[in-house]
Design goal:
The chain is 36% helix and 14% strand. It is of the alpha+beta class. It has one domain (12-66).
């Protein structure tokens, strides 16, 4: 197996640095909903966001892409 993620159910990802420069967290999941759930948990615990605004959610969803791209 040449690809370390081969066989894993990781289809989509969101790089936090696309929204918060300097943060190296990457939320990965099988679909956008799973990625958003992980990203929201990260935003609350690391970036101290008590709630995710609609604007931030919209930007985050737009930044989700296929894993490895």
């Amino acid at each position: 197996m040449n690809n370390p993620t081969e066989g894993l159910l990781v289809a989509r990802e969101l790089r936090c640095a696309d929204l918060m420069p300097g943060c190296d967290f990457v939320a990965q999941g099988k679909d956008d909903s799973e990625v958003m759930r992980k990203a929201a948990e990260h935003a609350k615990s690391v970036h101290r966001m008590a709630a995710i605004s609609m604007e931030v959610e919209r930007k985050a969803r737009a930044a989700i892409r296929d894993a490895g791209s």
